[in-house]
What we know:
Blueprint: H1 3-66, H2 73-86, E1 90-96, E2 102-107, H3 124-137, E3 141-142, E4 146-151, E5 154-167, E6 170-180, H4 181-188, H5 191-194, E7 197-202, E8 208-212, E9 220-230, E10 233-243, H6 252-298, E11 302-307, E12 312-315, H7 317-323, H8 327-331, H9 345-356, E13 366-371, E14 377-388, E15 394-403, H10 405-461, H11 466-495, E16 502-504, H12 506-523, E17 527-531, E18 539-541, H13 543-561, E19 570-579, E20 584-592, H14 599-604, H15 620-630, E21 635-639, E22 645-652
Parallel strand pairs: 17-19
Antiparallel strand pairs: 1-2, 1-6, 3-5, 4-5, 5-6, 7-8, 7-10, 9-10, 11-12, 11-15, 13-14, 14-15, 16-18, 19-20, 20-22, 21-22
Helix pairs in contact: 1-6, 10-11, 12-13, 13-15
Bound molecules: adenosine-5'-diphosphate.
Amino acid sequence: xxxxxxxxxxxxxxxxxxxxxxxxxxxxxxxxxxxxxxxxxxxxxxxxxxxxxxxxxxxxxxxxxxxxxxxxxxxxxxxxxxxxxxxxxxxxxxxxxxxxxxxxxxxxxxxxxxxxxxxxxxxxxxxxxxxxxxxxxxxxxxxxxxxxxxxxxxxxxxxxxxxxxxxxxxxxxxxxxxxxxxxxxxxxxxxxxxxxxxxxxxxxxxxxxxxxxxxxxxxxxxxxxxxxxxxxxxxxxxxxxxxxxxxxxxxxxxxxxxxxxxxxxxxxxxxxxxxxxxxxxxxxxxxxxxxxxxxxxxxxxxxxxxxxxxxxxxxxxxxxxxxxxxxxxxxxxxxxxxxxxxxxxxxxxxxxxxxxxxxxxxxxxxxxxxxxxxxxxxxxxxxxxxxxxxxxxxxxxxxxxxxxxxxxxxxxxxxxxxxxxxxxxxxxxxxxxxxxxxxxxxxxxxxxxxxxxxxxxxxxxxxxxxxxxxxxxxxxxxxxxxxxxxxxxxxxxxxxxxxxxxxxxxxxxxxxxxxxxxxxxxxxxxxxxxxxxxxxxxxxxxxxxxxxxxxxxxxxxxxxxxxxxxxxxxxxxxxxxxxxxxxxxxxxxxxxxxxxxxxxxxxxxxxxxxxxxxxxxxxxxxxxxxxxxxxxxxxxxxxxxxxxxxxxxxxxxx
Length: 654
Ligand code: ADP
């Protein structure tokens, strides 16, 4: 499942759960509240039943008191009257003899006599049955309630109480009291129980027999039934409680739970919004990262980051491709990087140490040689810069690498063609000089020859005069002098270069040639070592010519080593002081470890146009010797042990 879907699913589940939880909480709170109301109602019902029961018991005692000391009927009537006036729940009291004949009777003063319309005889059976129950129980007994019609369509529910009168263990009569159920509700139940609820007596099927309290309309009704057990009958007391219009927050608990739920939903919403913002930021970041990665991957410049200990911490694909090692191989490197050519590793190690010591590299970069995994050497241009973190501290070095193989090839091509051009130019000059010389010398030589021939002819024919011969000799002398002048002018031309000499330090000479030497050294994988004592005196020379000599010798040495089988190609350039008795001079030497010079080659080494190379001209060494000899030095070569050749020349001090 994609993460976005899963996240959405989780969020929906969370929201559904929280909503379900909140609804359950609100519902539980409502139910709790309802149960509170219900139990209060039940408590009230129990209390009401208790009140009715104790009032009825009290009434029984008061009624028994009416018969105290067997009163005369007139006294009884007065007492009963007084009693009824105080007890509105009672409608009528009768005193009957044991045969159920009424001795005296009193009606309540608060309403019309109850049995006027109905007729007392209609309830005679009820009364008799109740009294027999009472006799059996030898105590008060109540009848089941029945309806008594009072007026057209009006009536009331009544209940009889029969109290057997016993004197000295003998039944002397009955006291029958008629209770109004409505009266019981009105008089015997305290007011606060009926204030907010409806109270009624009901039948088993729910029909109301009597009712008290206001019948309010409301949606929620709480109801409870409580049985009122009396001897002989059982009444059902019903309490109804109306709740007002449905309250959303019926009580503090529900309100609190609802408020907390709302707060929870608000927090959920805020969290969701925060999450969305985070996701957006995350998305932006991922996009930026992807862009950066694409940029790094498509770069053709190699990139490498190193920490302050020299360990590689990052390389881009271009760098890996350049050196042929994977990023893992490069990052797990130990001291020497795997792409360092073995012959240069020491030098690179030194350079790295210098860098790690904090010395900043040149801004414009420097050239170096790396080794591909396959062994080929690659010339590279390195541009290094310190890696600075947000706190402004340096955490390492960042380097960019440019593969300059193609550049080198082009440079080499142009250099070679320039070399060839120069050589051709030199040859042309030599040729021109030769033709000039021959042309210039031709005339005087031809003249000398013809004078000499003429004189010989005259001498042979014997008709010569001394004057003729003298003239011819004079002419010959003149022409010879002219030829001499031609030669001198060439000599002068060559000598004119003497004026170009100045005093230079060997350091300056090498500074000028090293870039060119290194260029070729890199191409032929030669390591160039330069040994120059720190303070060397100046030499008097024509800079350009001597530089050319050094260059020629170095190139010959490197070319000599360009044969298979030489593992570590080293070219040593060295300068030493040489003091003999009358001369003070410097000795320059160029040492290679090539195959050396065979004796047959050695004989012709300085012969112009002698070469063993396909592209060679064979002029290099002969020119070198001329130049050095013109400077008053000499050029020689000796074999080098164990192999190779040392070419050395001397130059006088300035
Ligand atoms: P070129 O270099 O054009 O051939 P040079 O006069 O400079 O002309 O050299 C002549 C020949 O001498 C070279 O062809 C080569 O055979 C030989 N030679 C010169 N220097 C060395 C050297 N250091 N080791 C071996 N042979 C050399």
